[in-house]
Amino acid sequence: MYFNDGSVTLKYSMREGYLLNTSAVYVGCNEFPTLSNGLETVEPSRYNFISPSSGDYRRYTVGPIDINNDSFYLIACAEISEVVCDCSLSNSDSNGEFRTEGSGQCGRGGSTTISPFLNFRASQRQGTEELKLNFELDIDSKVKVDIMTMNGIVLKSQVINDYKRGSDQLLNINTSRIRDRVLFVRLTTNQGVEIKKIILNRK
Questions:
Q1: pLDDT tens for residues 18-35?
Q2: Where along the chain do its domains lie?
Q3: 44 preceded by cis ω (within 30°)?
Q4: How far apart are the C-alpha atoms of 112 and 30, rounded to whole Å?
């Protein structure tokens, strides 16, 4: 882990015979991530920096992550696999990098909310595979929306580059190829991260 000039970078280096597939990293001023009900958690799907895709890496870099505090907490975990045969893994595939967006969860007083006001709604018509997500914030910001499994794997992502304060943003998500019933929606703004849990209607 390297900390330099207000940003932190994490580097994984795997032992011989193992590869990194995905990673999840929490950076914030609270000791643990905080749920919307105020309870603390160490569940990786709640971490604020989760690899957007999986791969097979001997070395993997996450960051740089901006953090507006010289004192902070960092939790890192990774999903790894044992190498049975590395004959198909070239040197170009052995290094991975996750160029993060957003900053560590260090708001005023250690708050981790993405906005003083968040209105979030999820709906799905019975018998359909279309999930509708609505959210409204009271800030102007770039917003990234990630649909994740309980294991923190990102299934779908969408970026709103110029969200305007007070706008009722609607996203339509086709869930026909998603097997999981329980999903998490992660909203990332320039003020932090918020995660909401949704349960899909399945036949």
A1: 899 888 888 888 888 877
A2: 2-108, 113-199
A3: no
A4: 8
> What residue type is assigned to position 61 of the chain?
T
- 66 neighbors 30 (Cβ within 8 angstroms): no
Q: Are 119 and 169 in contact (CB under 8 A)?
A: no
- Which residues are CB-contacts of 118 (< 8 A; sequence separation ≥ 6)? 135, 136, 137, 187, 194
Percent helix / strand / coil, the chain, rounded to 5:
5, 50, 45
In a 3-state reduction of DSSP, which class is residue 44? Answer: helix
pLDDT at 111: 40
- Percent of the chain residues past pLDDT 90, beyond the cut: 6
CATH architecture assigned to 113-199: Sandwich (2.60)
* Torsion angle (degrees, nearest 10) of CA 69, 4, 194, 146: 170
